[in-house]
Amino acid sequence: MKLTRYKLGEILNVTRGASLSGEFYATEGEYIRLTCGNFDYQNNCFKENKSKDNLYYVGDFRSEFLMEEGDIITPLTEQAIGLLGSTAIIPESGKYIQSQDVAKIVCKEDLLDKNFAFYLISSALVKQQLSAAAQQTKIRHTSPDKIKDCTVWIPELSEQKRIGKLLRSIDSKIERNRQINQNLEAMAKQLYDYWFVQFDFPNEEGKPYKSSGGEMVWNEKLKREIPKEWEIRPLNSLITVKDGTHESPKQQLEGRYLITSKHLLSSGIDYNTAYYISAEDYIAINKRSQVETNDILFSMIGTIGNKYLVAEKNVNFAIKNMALLKTSKSMHIMYFLWLYLSSWDYKHYEFNAISGSIQKFLSLDAMRNIPVPFNYDIAVAFNKQVSNICQCIINLKEENIQLIKQRNELLPLLMNGQVSVNSDLSDD
User: Judging by beta carbons within 10 Å of its beta carbon (0-12, 13-18, 19+), is residue 120 exposed, middle or buried?
Assistant: First the structure.
């Protein structure tokens, strides 16, 4: 495959967004201002920014800054390590305003395919150049000129189109799986709420317990009523709760992964920013906290409450700064416990149990003593009720793990011309 050398500025245009006055920020309105929070840089895609409540803009702005569906954007400030060079695609027209921290990418269509450009800008080659040229301030910055000054090698347009189409098809499948899982998790959580918050689980006659007059009693620990004959059990009386290492093993060029709380995302594990540790360190950590398929990982520091039901069939990582619930040994209540950790009861407990002034954390003792409203027969029945939904979620997560691995292995090979795309495959 023939590759041609270009500066990015020769094959695309980069424009900075509008300077938007803070006096017109609002909690509601017609238009949302784009920020660096709209980049899911672990998955290299767009996300809705939920970290701020003043994202709407009610002032005047030029129409050229109103984004269209399909526009490619990239950040100009690095508010998180690894953010520079990320790309995202605007999902909807007429809704988002391009702000000054966000650049818009417009391809010169006779030289650069749009889908190919999305992956080219987020490739390691471009990211390394942006990182090296970034201004060394507290928060590093790049600029449209620095982006345009990056050197790349690209194939002819027809090959670009095949590569872009293949990679986009993989990413589209990953995103569809995520959307399906979001809907399935919402269904499972709704059922949990019906059984364990409203307490309308099926009684002996198959009728909703509380709505049918089931006897309720006041529980002082939860500060609400629970069904008679139920109890409040500490989490560690239902499941073994461990934690990972608190040490910082030396980083290796290869080996097994060390997964910390910052690598545990709401959608799974971010392997891209994790690092390798030696086999000796891996074995030492796993003597106390061996992770297995169907265990639950739970972040106790940073984004407290992020959890992950392990879908990997061959677990190749050790853990740090997170709790390990050994649900692989108690699968008869595994889904019940997984959904409990998203419940109002848990969130209320977490709010009162978090420690730390600068760095918030949930201690292992606090984790082990989480109060769980519990009735064994009902928990087991619920587990059976949601098993098909939850197993589908796990299967789709495992499929995404494999798709992401495939994409990440293909990406550098396709971008540097080591492999090419069969035209027949790209037409599928």
Answer: buried
